[in-house]
Amino acid sequence: MLNRKRFTQEGLAKEQWAEITTSHVEGFVGVSVAVSISVKTLTDSWLTARFEFDDPVSRDLTIELPRFPLLLSPRKTENFTIYVTSNIEMDTYLPFTLYLKDSSIDGDAEYKGNVDVNFKLPEIQALSCDGVNKVTFPPIQEKSSLTKHFVLISDCPVDLQLELSIPMGESMFVIKSVQEIKKNDVSKVLMDRSGCVEEGPVKNKKGINKQLCRLSSGNAIKVAITFTSPKLSELEMNDQMATFNGTLSVAMIGINTVLKAVSLIGSVGSASLAVQPPVGKLLLSNEPTILNLCNTGTITGVWAVKFRCKIGTEGQFPFKVSANKVEIHPGSVNQLKLVYFGPHDTLNEGTLILEETSNGNIATIEIAGGSDRPKSFPIKTNYNNMSWVRAGRKELSLKNSTNQRIQIRCQIMGDGFMLDSPGVESRGTYVLSFGPCECRPLPVVFAPNSCLPHAAALHLVFDKNSDYSRKIKLHGCASNDSVRWSGLMTYGDTALVRAVSRSNIELKLFNKSSGPAFLSARVHFNLQYRFISADAELVGQRRVMGRRSQHTVVLRVPWPKLERRARSSDVTALATVTILTGPEFTRRRI
C-alpha cells in the first residue's frame, strides 16, 4: 500500500498541476493598482494555494494579498486580484511563488511567476493668468495683502490625493483657499483678471501653509494664494522697491516626491504723492484751478479726495472738486480741478485731504476761497458827528449790516473823551463783538479838563482787515454854567419874575467865567396871553457877554391891551423866557 502511494506521488509530480497567467500593469505613483492573476487547475483534485512574493521587495511598494489559503477547483480557472501601490517611479517585474497542495495525496508543488508593473508619476500643470507654473503678484503697498488664483490640472485618469505646501520660512505667501472646479471653468478663472483683489492693510494672523485636497479625474483645483507685504524698514531694506520669491510645492499624500513646484513672486513698493509745483496755500475762485498731482513712488496709488472746512456748517463746503478719487501710475501726473462757489466777500478756509486708500497715508493742502475784505464797512452808525456843550455821556448806536459774526476795535484819538464800557484797555482800545445783524450801543463820555473846545475822533476798525474803518468826529466844550441869573429867585435853572403893571420886565444875567459866553433868548407866551405876542418885544435876546460882565434881557409888552383882555380873577403865568447860554467857542463852531 505504501509503495502504491509513493508511486502515485511520483507520477503526479511529473505532471503540471496548474497554469499561471498575469497581466501587464501600468499605473501611477501613489495610486493603488489592481493586478489580476489567473490560475488554471490541470488536475482532477482539489488544490489549496497561497502566494508569496520573493524577497527582497522594495520598501516603496505596498502589496495587498487576498486571504489565504485559496481553494482551487479541479479543471477550472480561478482569478485572483492583488493591489499594488508604489511610491516611486518603476518599470520592473515582481517575482512571486505559488504554493499548491493536494490533500488527497498529501503532495506539494511550487510554481514561479512574474508581475510586470510600470508606475509613472502623474503629470500636473499649474496655470495662471501670468503663465505656466508661476504666479506673479503686482506691486503693492507695504503692510497690505493681495490675493491671486491659479488652477491645477492633470490628465491622470484616476483621482489624486494632493498635498499643497509652502515652506515655513516664506510666511509672506499663504494658501487662502482650495476649491475643486470643473475643467470647463478653468478658462473662466484664467481670464478673470479681477480675481486679483487688494485687501488693504492686514492684521498679524497666522496663515495656512499646508492644504490637502483631492483632484478628481476630469476636474481641476482652484487655489487662492495671498501675498502679505512686509514693512521694508523692518527688514532693514532702504530700497523703494523689493521683490520676494516663494514656492508652492504640489506632492501626493504620503509621497516625498514633488510633482510640481509653483513659483510665487511678490513685489513691494510705495506710492508717494507730490504737487507740482509745490504750493503752500491755494487760493480758489469761481474759475477752475488746476492742481497737478504726481506719483513719485514705484507703484500705482489711489487717493480719496476729501474736504475739511475750518469755518462753516458741517456738511456744507463751498468747494467743489472734479473727482472724488484719483488713480495715478508711477511717474504719471493727474490733474485735479478745484472751484470755489461760496460768497466772495467772506473768507472760507479749509483743507484738501488726499488719503491713500491702501494704507491711510494723508497728504494735505490748505485752501481758501473768497476774501475777508468786505465791499464796505460792515458797521452802520446813527451819527457821523457827535458834539457836547457840557460834560456828559452819550451813546452811539452801532449795527452789524452782515449776516456773520464780526468784531471791531474801537479807539478814541484825542483828549477829553473816553469809552464808558467794561473791558476797555489802558490804551483806550475796546473790542466789540457783533452777532449777525445785531445792534449794540457804544457809550462815549465827554470829560474835559479845561474850558477850551475839545476835538477828537472815534475810530471803528474791522478786526479782520484794518484797511476798513470808520471815523466818528467828536466835539465838545465845557460851559460850566458860567451864565447865571442875577438878583432873581431861582430854583435850579429856573427863575421866577413878577411882572409889574405898566413896567418892562427885566432879566439880569451875569457871566462869572473867565471866558466870553453867548446867550440866545426866546419868549413863549401862555395860551391865554398869546394875542399880544405880535406886539411884544424881547430886547437883548442875542448877545456875546465878555468875561465877568452883566447883561439885561428886557421884555416889553402892550400893557393897555393886556389889561383890557386879562381876567382879574384868574392869575396865570404871562410867558416863559428860555435862554440858551454857553461858551463863545461853541457858538463859533456851530
From TrEMBL:
It comes from the Eukaryota. This is Uncharacterized protein. It comes from Pararge aegeria.
